[in-house]
Design goal:
Blueprint lengths: L8 E4 L7 E4 L9 E6 L5 E7 L10 E8 L10 H9 L4 E6 L16 H13 L4 E10 L1 H12 L4 E7 L22 H9 L5 E3 L11 H10 L4 H6 L22 E6 L5 H12 L2 H4 L2 E6 L24 H22 L12 E3 L10 E3 L8 E9 L10 E4 L7 E7 L15 H4 L13 E4 L7 E15 L4 E10 L5 E11 L3 E15 L4 E7 L25 E7 L6 E8 L10
Parallel strand pairs: 5-6, 5-7, 7-8, 8-10, 10-11, 11-12, 15-17
Antiparallel strand pairs: 1-2, 2-9, 3-4, 4-6, 12-13, 14-15, 14-24, 16-23, 17-22, 18-21, 18-23, 18-24, 19-20, 19-22
Length: 585
């Protein structure tokens, strides 16, 4: 996570760590009305209420509820500033520390209490004199998850939600229908060991060079003198607790949903899984609205990247954060005006608004569906190619499949893993790295398309079909789609990853969705490799638990090129640019 622009924290040196910061509750904002809201079991949750300054504050009106674990009064989430922007549009705002966090009572346990606590908080709001009984919810990440928990509670007061950069499976290592599973993020256990140890948050970074990987966590708990219950439930053998005691939110009454998805959000796979599932359910499909922007999880936008000047970095500058607020909040407010206040018609809202990365427009494109109307599928085949003198182009992305059956081979050395591109994957655009140097590594396969003769607009899902074998008992697969500029620099377009439990597997790997213009003279490049560390937990090359492994083995991976099982990249585009008819499918 980024440092807030005015941290409320103390640093504690220790024998095992240079320091860790303890983030304690910030003072309650003077414009807030503080309450302790009693839950059904008697636990009281700290809740701040913000009312409009106008005369309408004396009358009942709709409320926007935000439930989060990041301190309702703190500068990281900056809810006091957000609340004042929302009340400026006439809404009442209730902001709550979730159970066990900061000023709220109760156990500090990830995910499992949010359904019933959401219901009880909604019920409390409906009995307040300033409430007309109509509530919407807004928020990012975990406070997007708490919106879905409130949907799963079935409370009738909840009329619309606006989840951003989140998902109902947030924080899970997802099992896929084909028997594969997601690769575990390094932050999976790290989040529990920082944010869910107790009421306060402890900011620290484990040393990725330590072995076993789990060692710094155990040393931290020993230094602190307490453990994280959520951590101990998840590791070493996960005990799955019920997130949805009243049934999955998608099985409850459908409410209007404004999804905000980031092209550069590392949590986007969870969000897209939700969107795809809701699209298959007619009652929910009719209530979905998409806003897809060129942002990452921490709301850095491509148009300002990289953020080298602290005065433009909203994590470091309050002025920069205030500048961010209209784009951050107004789409949700316009959405709530329709569904909470009945101002205007749902037909006035575009079903889909999306940003075309490197397009000519400043504003969003709009459409009735996603992928956009008129999209078509394109296929590029992975093919062998003669290496360039600099070793930069060992393979091709070809509109036609290779005539002969071939293989492509790479190694995975856990002692020299492929390094992650950014120090903080949640803030990818804070640095917005160029990735051409990764193409020089011997443990990354590289496949290049021909330079575009005319612009190619990609809009929709991307996936890679392939047959893979490994000399290890299992392996991880990472694939990145890049835009290579005429000067050789390369930037990220899309990415996907999967853990494969068997030595041999045929699979389709999703690389997510994209909205991206490949300009004339630019070319697509594909990277294929088996590590991305420390963003993702490092596969040891053995069958040991990767968190506990102290020994490693180098493994060799192989994919098929050509033939019926040859690897192929599937794209979706609204314009086909330079690609010939052979690529269209």
């Amino acid at each position: 996570m980024n440092a807030p622009f005015a941290p409320h924290a103390s640093s504690t040196p220790s024998a095992s760590f240079a320091y860790f910061e303890t983030v304690t509750p910030a003072p309650v904002d003077p414009s807030a009305l503080p309450f302790k809201v009693r839950m059904r079991d008697g636990v009281r949750l700290a809740t701040d209420v913000y009312l409009p300054d106008s005369q309408s504050a004396d009358e009942p009106g709709p409320t926007i509820l935000v439930r989060l674990p990041y301190d309702k009064s703190g500068t990281y989430a900056a809810l006091p500033l957000i609340a004042r922007h929302l009340t400026g549009r006439g809404y009442r705002v209730a902001v709550q520390d979730v159970r066990g966090k900061f000023r709220s009572e109760g156990e500090t346990l990830l995910f499992v209490n949010e359904v019933h606590d959401g219901y009880d908080t909604l019920e409390w709001i409906t009995h307040q004199t300033w409430s007309d009984g109509i509530v919407g919810m807004w928020g990012d990440s975990y406070y997007g998850y708490t919106q879905w928990a409130a949907v799963a509670s079935g409370h009738r007061a909840l009329r619309a939600i606006a989840p951003r950069v989140t998902g109902t499976e947030l924080g899970q290592v997802v099992e896929n229908p084909d028997g594969t599973r997601d690769v575990e993020m390094g932050i999976h256990l790290g989040y529990m060991a920082t944010h869910y140890v107790g009421p306060d948050t402890y900011e620290w970074e484990p040393d990725p060079a330590r072995r076993p990987l789990i060692a710094p966590f155990e040393e931290f708990f020993q230094t602190l003198g307490r453990r994280s219950p959520s951590f101990d439930i998840a590791f070493p053998q996960e005990v799955r607790l019920r997130r949805w005691p009243e049934g999955h939110p998608f099985d409850h009454r459908a409410v209007p949903v404004l999804h905000t998805v980031g092209w550069y959000d590392n949590c986007a796979p969870w969000h897209w899984r939700d969107i795809e599932e809701l699209t298959r359910r007619p009652d929910w499909a009719n209530q979905q609205y998409l806003l897809i922007d060129a942002i990452d999880h921490e709301n850095y936008h491509l148009k300002g990247a990289p953020y080298d000047d602290e005065s433009t970095d909203h994590a470091l500058s309050e002025d920069a954060f205030r500048t961010l607020l209209p784009g951050y909040l107004d789409p949700a407010l316009d959405f709530f005006d329709v569904f909470l206040r009945r101002q205007g018609s749902p037909a006035d809202l575009p079903r889909v608004r999306w940003h075309l990365v490197h397009g000519d427009e400043e504003d969003f494109r709009t459409d009735a569906v996603w992928p956009p109307t008129g999209s078509q599928a394109l296929t590029l085949h992975l093919a062998p190619g003669a290496a360039a003198p600099d070793g930069d182009t060992p393979g091709l992305l070809s509109p036609t499949p290779p005539a002969d059956l071939n293989t492509a081979i790479w190694t995975h050395d856990p002692e020299d893993p492929v390094p992650s591109a950014v120090p903080n994957a949640f803030a990818y655009l804070q640095t917005n790295p160029r990735l051409h140097d990764w193409s020089k590594r011997g443990d990354i396969l590289v496949f290049d398309a021909e330079p575009a003769a005319s612009p190619l607009d990609l809009a929709g899902p991307v996936s890679l079909d392939l047959a893979l074998t490994t000399t290890g008992p299992s392996t991880d697969l990472f694939v990145k789609l890049l835009d290579v500029h005429p000067d050789g620099e390369a930037e990220l377009v899309a990415q996907g990853r999967v853990h494969i439990d068997t030595p041999s597997r045929r699979l389709t790997l999703p690389l997510g969705h994209v909205g991206y213009r490949l300009h004339r003279g630019h070319r697509l490049r594909l990277h294929v490799h088996s590590s991305d560390f420390p963003e993702f937990v490092l596969h040891p090359g053995t069958d040991e638990n990767p968190w506990l492994a102290t020994h490693t083995n180098m493994t060799t991976q192989q994919i098929q090129l050509g033939g019926n099982g040859g690897a192929r990249l599937k794209l979706t585009a609204t314009s086909t640019g330079h690609l010939d008819d052979a690529a269209r499918s």
